[in-house]
Amino acid sequence: MHRRVVVAVGLGLFFEIYEIFLSSTISTTLKTQYALGGTELKLLLSSTFLGMFIGSALLSGLADRIGRRRAFLFNLIWFSLWSLIGAFSVSPLMLVATRFLAGLGVGAEYPVADAYLSDVLPKSDRGRLAAWAYTCSFVAVPVLGFMSLGLTEHSLLGIPGWRVLLVIGSVGAVAVMLLRRGLPESPRWLAGVGRSDEAMAALRRFETNPTPATVTAPPREPASTTPVGTTKPWQRLGISPYRQRLGMLAVFHVFQSFGYYGFGTLAALVLVSRGYDVTTSLLYTSLSYLGYPVGSVLAIPLLRWFERKYLVMASIGALAAFGLLFATVPQTVLIVVFGFLTTATSNVFSNVYHVYQAEIFPTDVRATAVGLTYSLSRLSSAALPFVLIPVLDDYGATAMFGVVLGALAIATASVAWVGPKTSRRNLEEINPA
After folding, report:
1. Is 226 or 142 the better-scoring residue by pLDDT?
2. Is the pTM of this model over 0.90?
3. What DSSP assignment string belongs to 330-368?
4. Total domain count for the chain?
5. Contact call for residues 187 and 202 (beta carbons, < 8 A)
């Protein structure tokens, strides 16, 4: 069952990553083919992230109230609907609006997935199995990159390629939703809301060789004596150490997005600004994107060997260095090499912090805390085009990555100052009463 969870969660996350990086593909194509520019271009790049911000902030908390499984299904239905409508957009404004609405649904995917995986995966394999789920998701980046090469400048049965890419995202989300219907609810969540019989039944589905005498209710954090549905999240999150951890993650997410999404969404535009045509830029970007699944796989052993806190900090440093080199080296081969290293390091970083952030809050507020703080990364990502594109246009790629370096330094400092150690510890040890 754990393997099925990894696949079902990973494929759902595939379409969040697909949606994020589709913004870069669509914007690059529409900029050249339809002379989209100025405010319209920035709004197109920002609309999905703004929707994800609101979706992550408002919908993630549903998983603490109605359950992880129901939240999963609602998110995918909403995303699929608006992604399909977006494929029939008749104006830039309609496309921006549908991208925003699709972002609402997909925005809660990662926070709910983080909470669910943390709830159901065993301590000894929590980091490794979660990293496999995230690896499934990041296959979306090179897949989208190479599909874009074949579709963005062409039509399929007379339909512009960028519209086809939106339909693919919608249909794929429906398929994943059907797969997820077979997942059990989180036993920890069920126990927390007082549904003990259902928790035991769900727990048996996760047991390799269950026997009634040995199956016990999942452990709960000492303070979780109030059913989840009646717990006030802000009261729980307002006590130490969760207050400090919430503040740390808020600062972290505001600034980490400059590095991760700054590269992912603007890489093609950076290459265009350096004089490469659209097709060449998309080719180099697609080759660079191969690093995303490679880095995600690399994170699997690293999560077992090293402390999560220090892995987050080290991967940020490597991401900053490789990103700056990508923006400055003149040789084509080196552009692709450092682009690959940037994306590989990005996903070591991403996998580690997704595991880490879900471990540092108790079950009854886990999805709420992760969703609220993670939503800030979507808000700052929505602002990125308005901050970084003017710097790119006026001062060049090196200056733009200089801004990114400053943001990543702040993200690193926040984790170094407040972040607890979590590797090889029970969730109850990490999250005291």
Report:
1. 142
2. no
3. -SHHHHHHHHHHHHHHHHHHHHHHHHHHHHTS-GGGHHH
4. 1
5. yes
**Token digits of residue 228:** 């989840």
Residues 48 and 95 sit within 8 Å (Cβ to Cβ) = no
Matching residue, tokens 């083919």: 33
Q: Which of 59, 421, 65, 56 is nearest to 245 (CA)?
A: 421
Query: Got the DSSP string for 274-330?
Result: TT--HHHHHHHHHHHHTHHHHHHHHHHHHHHHS-HHHHHHHHHHHHHHHHHHHHH--
Q: Please name the residue that has the structure tokens 């009854």.
A: 364
What one-letter code names the amino acid at 370? V
Q: Residue 6 in contact with residue 132, Cβ under 8 Å?
A: yes
pLDDT digits (tens, 9 = 90+) for 185-199: 888 888 878 888 888
Where are the extended beta strands (E) located within 153-228? 155-156, 159-160
Choose among 211, 124, 178, 170: nearest CA to 8: 178
Whether 148 contacts 282, CB under 8 Å: yes
- Secondary structure tally for the chain: helices H, strands E: 20, 2
Instruction: Give the count of beta carbons closer than 10 Å to the beta carbon of residue 399.
Output: 14
Q: Which residues pair with 160 in a beta bridge?
A: 155
pLDDT digits (tens, 9 = 90+) for 7-64: 888 888 888 788 777 876 777 667 666 566 667 777 777 788 888 888 888 877 778 8
The CATH code of the domain that includes 348 is 1.20.1250.20
Q: Buried (b) or exposed (e) across 229-261, using 16+ Cβ within 10 A? A: eebebeebbeeeebeebbebbbbbbbbbbbbbb
Q: Which domain holds residue 281?
A: 2-430
Overall size of the chain counted in residues = 433
Encode pLDDT of 93-105 as tens digits: 888 899 899 988 8
- Token pair, residue 392, equals 């790119």
